[in-house]
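User: Here's a chain of 514 residues. Predict its fold as tokens.
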Amino acid sequence: MNTIQKKTVTAGFLVLIFSILGKIVSFVREISFSAVFGTTNLTDAYFSANVIPSILNIPITISALMFFIPLYNDRRVNNGYNAANVFSSNVLNVFTLITICLTIFVQIFAPLLIRLVAPGFDEETFKYSVELLRLLCLSFPITLVTSVFINISNANQKHFSPQLLVVINSSITILAIIFLAPKYGIYVVPISGLVAWFFQLFLQHFFIKDMFTYKFVINFKDPYLRKIIILAIPVIIASFAEQINLMVTNILCSQLGEGSISIINYALRILNLVNGTITIAILTVMYPVFSLLMAQKDYSKFSQSFNSSIKICLLTVTPLAVLCLIGGFEIIKTIYYRGNMMLDAVTDISVVFIFYSIGIIFIALREIYVRIFYTLNNSILPMYISLGCSTLNILLNILLIKKMGISGVALGASISNILYFVLVRSFLVRKFSFVSYSIEKKFYKELCLALLASIIIWYLYKYFFYIDNIAYFFIASCLTLGMYVLILYLLKNREMIFLISGIKDKVNMYINRK
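Assistant: Prediction complete.
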């Protein structure tokens, strides 16, 4: 590995540690939410209200800012930090105005929007959902500003403060659910989220005060701002198509009976937590590196870094995907089976979760390939692929839900995610020849042997020592993943050896400081 790869792998490990901490707190949040609210019309109302921000706000806040880091690095490398600050301030001001207008729009048309995403609701559930939506949309401008600050931090390869976001936001929500929900109900969830985002706004600004100087500028003619908008339009369209796909899923599930929407959303939340732990850690570190190397036009190191990110993704996400497939029921039961959550609902959630888990590794790899397209200032091709796969997913949902019920939704999503990955990988390699994809057969053999050994350990432990409690699941998971790491180390897998040595170096450095 070259120096850049070593630094990024080490940084990726640190981000992973914070990401895991964030996911643990998020798991506790999910446990608290499910235990207090269960699967009722209230949770259906809340999850349906959450669909609207996903359709309207996420495409702007996330998709448009997807190109912020490459353009920020380009501005910084070619024109200096002052120009980068002017660019950042302009993006912040313009997109904040957009989100304010969006908030006003949602406040006015909330009843119509809820009717669109959940036409099967009765009047009581409809009323709850409208009220929850109006609370949720108040955070739009705050999340936008916070996201800009986080992007500035990541662009400067300072990854500590962004990882605090999930930990703090989830902690505030947990406290609100435990202490306030018994008295004020589900309304405390969006209100606590709003409070958390306000806190994050000031916290993230504190961490970037040495990297960013705010300037009051609104310049719609700025070529870099225009470039963000031009590049973001296809991404927003693709993201919008994906959210329409979720909306159609919501509409179909709203007609399957009370709790169906909640079952899908509970499964998706755990899927996103599991998949996002590694994927976010990799992308958080590698995306700024990709954009910086592209700004410097260092194609050789760019290709090497791309291959390293793919290997690290396969090495880390694959065992989690396998664990979700073989232990899906145990995972869901450990997290959700308490309070108002009944065993029948847990069983339904676990089946849906297992079908979703089929696509975990493909989602993770897809995100890396898509980011490469964005780094190369190409957002058109991923848009076409996304539109095609979203359309396929909707058709599969309609077809499979008739034959398989709610599980058909998850299977249809996994099939479309696999196709999405196959297409985006194929087109990337064909269109950009300098992005080489070369992973040795030895790597795949080591990976398969380690996975096989870990699966055997899981079933042996389950057969001889099965006890229906949290401790069993924790021990079984640790043994399974521990065997996976051990086999890779014994097989002298280069990435695993380097990762372990990097951990040792960090520990020794910390001890020496003490």
